[in-house]
């Protein structure tokens, strides 16, 4: 809670329900904002300053009534202003005015390196927080720079907001990114970096990129490296997702194998079961593939580990089963016990590989698990 503020929401909640609901806040699309294209821009909140007051400050700048500062800009143009106002709005300008040469009542200062019109928009903002949408679009980069150089936080926030909400594009993003880092706009640097990553191929072929490579080679390298890193992470995510799908399919195959050997399914099942070919509808997705694999395994002449590719697959499934099987005494899956004994003679390397596979397969079903399989933690 902020000291000195009243939590209105909380206050209203605690009041009797017969108290009328307060009227809504003034609409964001009132006359003033429409005229100045401010929409939902921050820092220009509703209701604090009336439209008339803002217009008065705006007029004071435009008319220059009793101005006492001459600001020299590029191309020989000048802007008239009031020392008390611009000095109060920016501590940097206050310092400049203190050291400025005086000619009678006039202080003279210079703001150069940006277009004259950008300086005019900047000074007008210091008076009234007013600006035209078109001017913001045109001079956003200059205003960003000026807001930093002359320490005007509200303009800084406004520029950031406009860039984030539409003015940042593939044409200015590289410049914005560099400016954001140089002028301490952390949020903007993250947003522009994200955009560069997204359009890296297109942007790395532009002149702006070549210029950045020349002026800030370390920065260019850092961005390129982060793109490579991001690409590797993306590939890794895809690989993990694919692995997860395979583990999940193996888990389902393990369930189906137990079900076929215990209950029988469609055309195959345990020999002692009263087996009817028109068996009830099966709920195990994996049965279909497993059924044909078991049929092949039963009839294949090469039925040895390392033999035909289908038999090899079947052996792997049987071995995996014996490793996840919770009770070989109750189990009806062929060779379950034999394979359990065989694994005791396995090399350490094979053992580690299998253990990892078992852990991943059992872990692929996060909820529940099966009473026929070992709990995942024991693997
Ligand atoms: Zn089935
Ligand atoms: Zn075979
Ligand atoms: Zn078993």
Automatic annotation (TrEMBL):
Family annotation (PROSITE patterns): BTB (PS50097)
Compartment annotation: Cytoplasm
Pfam families: BTB, zf-TAZ
Ranges for domain BTB: 67-135
Principal cellular location given in the protein's record: cytoplasm
GO cellular component terms attached to this protein's record: cytoplasm
One of the GO BP terms on file: protein ubiquitination
Region (Disordered): 15-36
UniProt KW keywords: Cytoplasm, Metal-binding, Ubl conjugation pathway, Zinc, Zinc-finger
Pathway assigned in UniProt: Protein modification; protein ubiquitination
UniProt GO MF annotations: calmodulin binding; zinc ion binding
SUPFAM superfamilies for the chain: POZ domain (SSF54695), TAZ domain (SSF57933)
General function of this protein: May act as a substrate-specific adapter of an E3 ubiquitin-protein ligase complex (CUL3-RBX1-BTB) which mediates the ubiquitination and subsequent proteasomal degradation of target proteins.
Protein name: BTB domain-containing protein
Native species: Capsella rubella
């Amino acid at each position: 809670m902020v000291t000195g503020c009243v939590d209105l929401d909380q206050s209203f909640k605690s009041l009797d329900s017969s108290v009328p609901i307060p009227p809504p806040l003034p609409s964001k699309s009132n006359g003033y904002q429409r005229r100045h294209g401010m929409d939902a821009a921050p820092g220009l909140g509703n209701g604090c300053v009336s439209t008339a007051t803002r217009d008065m400050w705006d007029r004071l700048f435009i008319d220059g009534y009793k101005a006492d500062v001459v600001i020299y800009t590029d191309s020989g143009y000048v802007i008239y202003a009031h020392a008390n106002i611009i000095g109060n709005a920016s501590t940097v300008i206050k310092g400049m005015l203190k050291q400025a040469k005086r000619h009678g009542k006039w202080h003279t200062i210079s703001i150069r390196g940006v277009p004259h019109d950008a300086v005019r928009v900047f000074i007008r903002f210091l008076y009234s927080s007013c600006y035209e949408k078109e001017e913001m679009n045109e001079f956003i980069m200059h205003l960003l720079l000026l807001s930093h150089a002359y320490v005007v936080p509200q303009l800084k926030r406004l520029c950031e907001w406009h860039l984030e909400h539409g003015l940042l594009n593939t044409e200015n993003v590289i410049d914005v990114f560099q400016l954001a880092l140089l002028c301490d706009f952390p949020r903007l640097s993250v947003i522009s970096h994200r955009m560069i990553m997204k359009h890296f191929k297109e942007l790395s072929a532009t002149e702006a990129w070549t210029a950045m490579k020349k002026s800030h080679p370390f920065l260019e390298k850092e961005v390129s490296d982060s793109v490579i890193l991001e690409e590797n992470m993306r590939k890794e995510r895809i690989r993990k997702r694919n692995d997860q799908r395979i583990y999940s399919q193996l888990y389902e195959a393990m369930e189906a194998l137990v079900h076929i050997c215990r209950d029988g399914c469609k055309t195959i099942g345990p020999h002692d079961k009263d087996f009817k070919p028109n068996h009830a509808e099966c709920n195990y997705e994996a049965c279909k593939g497993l059924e044909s694999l078991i049929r092949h395994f039963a009839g294949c002449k090469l039925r040895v580990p390392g033999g035909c590719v289908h038999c090899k697959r079947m052996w792997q499934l049987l071995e995996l089963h014996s490793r996840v099987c919770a009770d070989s005494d109750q189990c009806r899956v062929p060779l379950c016990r034999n394979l359990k004994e065989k694994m005791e003679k396995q090399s350490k390397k094979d053992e580690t590989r299998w253990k990892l596979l078992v852990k991943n397969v059992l872990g692929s079903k996060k909820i529940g698990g099966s009473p026929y399989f070992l709990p995942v933690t024991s693997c």
